[in-house]
From TrEMBL:
A single GO cellular-component term on record: sarcolemma
NCBIfam families according to UniProt: ATPase-IIC_X-K, ATPase_P-type
Membrane topology: Multi-pass membrane protein
Keyword field: ATP-binding, Cell membrane, Ion transport, Magnesium, Membrane, Metal-binding, Nucleotide-binding, Phosphoprotein, Potassium, Potassium transport, Sodium, Sodium transport, Sodium/potassium transport, Translocase, Transmembrane, Transmembrane helix, Transport
UniProt-listed PANTHER family: SODIUM/POTASSIUM-TRANSPORTING ATPASE SUBUNIT ALPHA, SODIUM_POTASSIUM-TRANSPORTING ATPASE SUBUNIT ALPHA-1
Chain segments carrying region Disordered: 35-60, 97-128, 154-196, 377-396
Family: Belongs to the cation transport ATPase (P-type) (TC 3.A.3) family. Type IIC subfamily.
Subcellular location per the Swiss-Prot or TrEMBL entry: Cell membrane, Sarcolemma
SMART domains documented for this protein: Cation_ATPase_N
Record lineage: Eukaryota, Metazoa, Chordata, Craniata, Vertebrata
GO function terms (MF aspect): ATP binding; ATP hydrolysis activity; metal ion binding; P-type sodium:potassium-exchanging transporter activity
Protein name: Sodium/potassium-transporting ATPase subunit alpha-1
EC number in record: 7.2.2.13
Amino acid sequence: MEFKVSLTHLESPDWLWGMADARISSTGKSFVLRRSLQDGDSARRAAESAPRGAGAEPPEHALSLRATGFRQAEAPLPRPARPGRCQLCRGRASFIRREGAGRRPLGRRSARAHSGGRPTSGGRRALPSRPFCLRAAHTWQSLLASLRLPERATPERRAVGTMGKGTGRDKYEPAATSEHGAKKQKGKKDRDMDELKKEVSLDDHKLSLDELHRKYGTDLSRGLTPARAAEILARDGPNTLTPPPTTPEWVKFCRQLFGGFSLLLWIGAILCFLAYGIQAATEEEPNNDNLYLGVVLAAVVIITGCFSYYQEAKSSKIMESFKNMVPQQALVIRNGEKLSINAEGVVVGDLVEVKGGDRIPADLRIISAHGCKVDNSSLTGESEPQTRSPDFTNENPLETRNIAFFSTNCVEGTARGVVINTGDRTVMGRIASLASGLEGGQTPISIEIEHFIHIITGVAVFLGVSFFILSLILEYTWLEAVIFLIGIIVANVPEGLLATVTVCLTLTAKRMARKNCLVKNLEAVETLGSTSTICSDKTGTLTQNRMTVAHMWFDNQIHEADTTENQSGASFDKTSPTWAALARVAGLCNRAVFQANQENVPILKRAVAGDASESALLKCIELCCGSVKDLREKNPKVVEIPFNSTNKYQLSIHKNANPAESRYLLVMKGAPERILDRCSTILIHGKEQPLDEEAREAFQNAYLELGGLGERVLGFCHLALPDEHFPEGFQFDTDDVNFPVDKLCFVGLISMIDPPRAAVPDAVGKCRSAGIKVIMVTGDHPITAKAIAKGVGIISEGNETVEDIALRLNIPVNQVNPRDAKACVIHGSDLKDMSSEQLDDILKHHTEIVFARTSPQQKLIIVEGCQRQGAIVAVTGDGVNDSPALKKADIGVAMGIAGSDVSKQAADMILLDDNFASIVTGVEEGRLIFDNLKKSIAYTLTSNIPEITPFLIFIIANIPLPLGTVTILCIDLGTDMVPAISLAYEQAESDIMKRQPRNPKTDKLVNERLISMAYGQIGMIQALGGFFTYFVILAENGFLPSSLLGIRVAWDDRWINDVEDSYGQQWTYEQRKIVEFTCHTSFFVSIVVVQWADLVICKTRRNSVFQQGMKNKILIFGLFEETALAAFLSYCPGMDVALRMYPLKPTWWFCAFPYSLLIFVYDEVRKLILRRSPGGWVEKETYY
């Protein structure tokens, strides 16, 4: 990229702008821009004659070309002559006088010119069409945007990408030039999302204090003036996060009423009303069946919709996260006075003070600090509090020490800083915008239900149209044909299935809640079961989010720490004098204390005031050596030097409880190498020995080994101060140190780690056997991340990374073929430079992956990469940094205890116990509900065939109608409902967590094999059972099957009262109808009888019913319930009037028994072949 810029600047009372030429050469193309009102000569003459002001321009009116990538000195810009508003930030605007146009700001009318539109006089292009304030970068952002420079020419171009530059206040949309105007641009939303996904680009941490003062116009000792603060507040708006867009409640309710399956039922209801309307218009006494059916269908949709809405509303009452994110008060310095103001009033350039316990009110550039530490875990995922100081320590703004971020907590110490970003422009605001702007997409179960609707609709329309044509061929009237068409379509709609699916999902959601998984969205229940990749956060999810002492090194040996309450696992000699000395230093040189009134609480569960490392040391010493409080009371502290980033040690001097040793004892802890440098001796078996090369080498080996385990290592030393130099009452001075801080005695090392949760390794193992890939995505250090990944089994034993292979073969890393390593650890800085193709390659060819030091934007990119591979991705996380990835994933899983409110808002499911193992339970439940929904749908659809075929035979063979519409409703919404729901309680089959995750493209909820089984096999046997019963009853009443063919017209004619049966007996219309309705009842009862067998065979898809057993009590209840309901409808007095159902002879109940037994035997034989010949023809054709 090459820039060539010349700028002739005019300062004139006539608001004359001079000529600005910009030439940009990029990848062989040349773009030329000319902005001019006057020719060059007149511009120069104007410049020479213009009077000069008495003083330098204020710093904010200077143009920093550095910000846009130009290597050129700063050039002053003119002060505006009169007030106006900048079109970019609504600040004060520069005014320009056009030739013959009078004095006015550059207006909106010239928008075309700004995007490379019409040329002005002289063939030159018009000036940029907006007035710009004198914040130089706004002017130059617009100039460069109008040129459509390649992205890296202006790396800090937009939004938070220009954090703290004054240019980051707004989102700029690059205008198309005449050369590029024809190119199709992305939609605004896509562009915004692409910008948000870019890494945080911030240069304030690199600026000196003088540059910081010039940039923000802030007096670094007195702060802003109230007037200036008010002006900035009016320009930038309040320091608040824009709340995420919420869906109105009425829209949510309408989605439940008109979404997915409900729509099919509404269509069915409308068709019923249409059929009734046609009948009412053409018949004197129309049949009311279609009217009843329409009303019932509408009622089913409304009741089920209300139920679903209630369930979802109950599950989704999550806190108003963004309000909770903003601290209420902030301490600012304005005009030299300290003021406590509402945090919303903090503005860019404000001088802010924070102390331990405060939340950071905005993004701050630290200018002074005293022992300040902040908890960045919700932003970066690091467990350990991070030190803040004025020092620039890292190019990455997220890792440097001189930036403190909005909404993180100050744990201890004090700091003063300049506000560099507020509200949505902060790093946290950017993440919140990214999360709220992401589209979640359809859940897998909603896709499956949509697919199911397509199948059912297709079958219904095909049958309806086919028989409509057939009825016309058979010379039915077109009105009759239309009624048949509607009847067949409605008969295909499984009215009770919507309620069944909703109840099944609700029951599973309640069952998961008992297992600590709160489901916000019912459809997320099944999504978790479909998961093929889990991207898990480390801190707090895989680990306990509390530092714990893991190892100690003393007496030249590494010992494993025992952190059990009863100290049953101690692996070292607690009587060692060296251990006593090490424990004494760790207990005394420690500011952590147990909070009050916890004497009866187990030590490991006690709340501690202090940072994570010191808390771990306190608990360890309390467990191993007894009361630390007593130790401190016996050895009272005299003086202390807190830890700071320069010394990298903490030191305290105590009165010695052991007078034989000395009067005063100096203890120190800190970075091991710094501590060792201050020592001349080492304590071995209680005796001081010279710190020779051998001892140093032993220290180095131990330090490397513990560090390689991903543990945080601290060194400890002490010194008994000689009594002759330090008598009683000696005044120790920590500013002008008057005591020795070197030639000390090294005691040992203690290492700490945030340990894995106990149940996680087993859970990861279950995921692996279930074919689920577990990827760790963390903001922590790669060594720590790798150690935890190995500890929990994400990197399994024996699998190596390229670094491990290089170490084993003693060759450079770049000589190792990455494909040889099954595992890999990717650093965030490497991921930043990767293309999508490279990321895809890693995800495809490595089975065990750890991403460390990742940013929130990178977590999102990783999720998208997994989704490109066709994976259904679950993402776990607890921090604000996880929320974009949680929202983008197919299912986001937030932590209920440690999780931030924003992460809970973005997630679909919340783990109430923060345990990764609960996810595996959730996966099992999700797979189980998918299996059980399949079984429930198979059971429900099977009865469709015996419901549809009577109608079809009625049309084709012209026989009396075997089954009425009302009776169909009694099956779908009566007898079938409880049995269908009871399948949701069915236990898992033996292979549920041993099979691969389902492929959403091939393994559908309803596939052709399920339709084949339900409609083509079991359904046909059921229909045969129904027709057998129907013909038996009619035969017993005198109508043999042969005499029924073609009898329909005479049978249904109310004016014919002399229809003869096979024996010559005449039947009136009323008598015929009683026999017909008795047939309807018997057909209904026969469906109930064959559905007994169907319910039992639907318990399993592969296992034998004898293997599975009959342990499902709800299912057994369902069998009795449907039988009792059928008997009630048949025998209850008054049913002949209400539902036209008549009592049956007891023998007629047994007509369908042989068919029920046939269904059971047929399916058991099929499943036996399935188990005996896996992958065979029977499995391919019938295993659904």
